[in-house]
Design a protein that fits this description.
Elements lengths: L4 H12 L7 H7 L18 E7 L3 E7 L3 E8 L6 E7 L4 E2 L2 E2 L3 E4 L8 E6 L3 E7 L8 H10 L2
Antiparallel strand pairs: 1-2, 2-3, 3-4, 5-6, 7-8, 8-9
């Protein structure tokens, strides 16, 4: 019986994506791995808020907000665990309920018609978001409320 190389590679690809996605509680706990996580000030990951931004069958992107920081976390099932892509101090994002960070959306993604791009200021640009996750309430409104802590 002949085995095709493409069949072997497809099986390996499926096997690598065998890990389940982390739960929202587990995603919130990923922030404790950050060098920016202020464990000394009593920040409790259980009190953090999480927003699922992007989702495919093999990866998810989450935003996690504490009182002090915003974290962007990638959960890729092909990797052993999720990791923090970037974080920002909330003082750079919101002050006295005013949104300081310029957030812009590009509803046309070069990747797929099912996704768009979101830009978090000049430093964190071209992050994919899944349109289906924001069908009932636009992403701009959800992000505004999420970042302001409302």
């Amino acid at each position: 019986m002949a085995v095709l190389l493409s069949d072997v590679l497809m099986k390996r690809s499926r096997d690598r994506a065998a890990r389940p996605f982390l739960t929202p509680d587990q995603i919130r706990n990923v922030i404790t791995q950050s060098v920016n996580y202020p464990s000394h000030d009593g920040t409790d990951p259980a009190r953090a808020r999480a927003l699922l931004l992007f989702q495919t069958s093999v990866q998810q992107t989450w935003l996690v907000r504490t009182e002090r920081r915003l974290y962007c976390i990638l959960d890729d099932r092909r990797k052993p665990t999720a990791h923090i892509n970037w974080s920002m101090a909330m003082s750079e994002i919101v002050h006295n309920d005013d949104l300081l960070l310029e957030i812009s959306l590009d509803e046309q993604s070069p990747v797929s018609s099912k996704s768009g791009l979101v830009h978090f200021g000049p430093s964190h640009r071209n992050w994919l978001y899944s349109k289906k996750l924001f069908a009932s309430e636009p992403l701009a409104e959800q992000l505004d409320r999420f970042l302001r802590g409302a």
